[in-house]
Amino acid sequence: MKTEVRDFLVGVLRDVLHLEIDDDHSDETPLDLESLFLVELVVQAEGRFGIELADEEVYQDSTVSLGDLVRLVVDKRTAVELGSGVAT
């Protein structure tokens, strides 16, 4: 699932937000997105993977990286699939 999530997020960054990002972009490099771009990326991920991400989870660090978002989405999606948590 990690690869699927990463590929989706990279696709949104490229196709929806029209940002240049290489396939070999380090997952730990901060994305340095404007706040509206980050909101759009989160909304797209929530819709695609059927989850809800709390603001404090996403915006707790101003240097959010692709890897941070991938881990967050995968963790939320796994919790939903296992029924151990709700999509919040």
Automatic annotation (TrEMBL):
It holds the Pfam family PP-binding. Signal peptide: none annotated. Residues 1-77 form the Carrier domain. It comes from the Bacteria. This is Acyl carrier protein. It comes from Actinoalloteichus hymeniacidonis. The lineage of its organism: Bacteria, Bacillati, Actinomycetota, Actinomycetes, Pseudonocardiales.
